[in-house]
Amino acid sequence: MSYDGMPTPGRNDACWCGSGKKYKKCHYEFDKRCERLWADGEEVLPRELWKSREDIEGIKVSAEVNKGILDYVGEHIQAGVSTMDINDWVNDYLAAHDAVSADLNFEGYPYSVCTSINSVICHGFPNKDDVLKDGDIINVDMSTIKGGYFSDSSRMYCIGNVDPEWRRLVETCHESVKAGLAVVKPWAHLGDVGAAVNKVCTEAGFSVVREYGGHGIGKEFHEDPWVGFTTEAGTGPIMFPGMCFTIEPMVNMGAPDITTDKDNGWIVRTKDGSPSAQWEVQLVVTDDGYELLSW
Question: Over the stretch 154-163, which tens digit does the pLDDT of each residue have?
């Protein structure tokens, strides 16, 4: 048995990944590297989280729908639109593309999309009474299931004449995601990503939410690993080729402290009422870096 409890094939047996190749020609060296890292005390995630090329292609099909929805929102969102209108757009687009929302009914979440305005950090409920107005910023967080595969990404939208400092918050959060992507590489530490994200945000004078982060995704909505954005470089799980996860920092203009709605248990806001921004991308680690899947 190996470090993660999976049986180890013989060198001339078929590889555990299902490629049909002999183990020695496929994942033998990969597994040896994982074993060495684990023996050295590193956190090495189980190989069941590895995604095959077939899996990645399936995720991409799902992601095309997910990205299409966010593109549609970007083309139609404006002052006067309600967040329930956005939920309706999502449902219509999903139905037209033979897909379903991963958000709807996930652990009891009652809508097909999350719409988080201004001081709402995440999990904002669509509501016909929440009508966007000039100066608002909003995060639309979309998650799609198609063909049994999960995709997930979110974007910020600035409505009309947004305060320059609020716009800087939105842009800084976006830049921090790019900084996180820049350090994704196989056999490095996941903590490197969070550290890079955090550096961009804090140097700009903003704070990063500690309690929420990214996650593994692909065959399930939320898989390991959890991806924090207040981490230190050189810490955390080892990123290996075939690992799929999201980078989605939530960045506050004020303090990082949060409060969760006591009535519904979902909507998370900044404790001090300051605005918050979030961008989310989904990626897979490759042999020489990463490939973006959904954004």
Answer: 999 999 999 9
